[in-house]
Design goal:
mainly alpha, lipid metabolism, 282 residues, transmembrane transporter activity, lipopolysaccharide biosynthesis, Small_drug/metabolite_transptr, EmrE-like, 12 helices
């Protein structure tokens, strides 16, 4: 397998894990507390792994700190979106915005150029993802979570480009993953502790298993993506990662009892066509 094949495989595995940990957050009675448990688990794992890697250079520290800010704002948008919206609509929007923005950012900031086939694949994946949001008729009540999801998508695209530069500037992929996760996993648990200490302690006691599962999947998911970013074009990796919406649509239907009909099947087919185009362009 060449680097492109490895990257595609890693990203598709990551897509499954990403949809799963997002479903864990959405299913929680308190999205804020559940996300705090997810981040807390990732924090503990990476703190234990710190001795395995060297301290990053000043340049890498800059990328880490910027990514922490972007990731924290993304998480706040994520919480608001899941508090008021259906998983089957919020998740596709949140994941559908980044590929287009990342393609633009990587072109202007990273000077990456995609072939016509690869760009067509990115656009098809975006089209399929966005179309998933129109399975149900849009109303004023559903507009707010959609806007929150768009906001989350903007920050996903931003930190993806920052992390692509950061992981390439690091000594190793593992170094960046560990240091980034340690610092980006602090704000939400800290806010949860300061905001409602008693509720946070109760959430740990009652739902630590769910938080641990979500944290492991979250850490593995983004770790695989960061490794893939070091192997292939950022826009391609970002677009392929958004295939997690297919898994998300299945989760929405099976676990949240949301509608899954021919429109979502058609959207999934469009996404698969986009994956094929990206694959044949390599």
């Amino acid at each position: 397998m060449d680097n492109s094949d490895i990257a595609i495989t890693l990203v598709l595995i990551s897509a499954f894990m990403h949809a799963t940990w997002n479903a864990v957050v959405r299913a929680g009675s308190s999205r804020f507390m559940t996300l705090a448990l997810v981040d807390g688990t990732a924090l503990l794992i990476c703190l234990a792994a710190l001795p395995l890697v060297d301290v990053p250079s000043l340049q890498v520290w800059g990328y880490v700190l910027l990514s922490v800010v972007l990731n924290t704002v993304y998480r706040l948008f994520l919480i608001k979106a899941y508090e008021t919206g259906d998983f089957g609509q919020v998740y596709p929007v949140m994941r559908g915005v980044p590929p287009v923005l990342v393609a633009l950012f990587s072109y202007f900031l990273l000077h990456e150029h995609l072939s016509f086939q690869a760009m067509a694949g990115v656009l098809l994946i975006c089209l399929g993802i966005i179309s998933l949001t129109f399975v149900r008729r849009m109303t004023a009540h559903r507009l707010r979570p959609i806007l929150m999801a768009v906001g989350a998508g903007v920050f996903i695209a931003s930190y993806t480009v920052v992390d692509a530069k950061g992981v390439r500037a690091s000594q190793t992929v593992l170094q960046y993953i560990i240091y980034l996760t340690v610092f980006q996993s602090i704000p939400i648990p800290l806010l949860a502790f300061l905001k409602a200490r008693t509720s946070f302690v109760q959430a740990i006691r009652s739902h630590w298993r769910v938080g641990m599962l979500g944290g492991i999947f979250y850490l593995a998911s983004y770790g695989l993506v960061l490794f893939a970013l070091s192997l292939d074009a950022v826009a391609k990796v970002s677009a392929l990662r958004e295939t997690s919406v297919i898994i998300g649509a299945i989760i929405a239907a099976l676990f949240f009892h949301e509608r899954f009909g021919w429109r979502r099947m058609l959207s999934a087919l469009v996404i698969v066509c986009g994956i094929i185009l990206i694959k044949v362009s390599t």
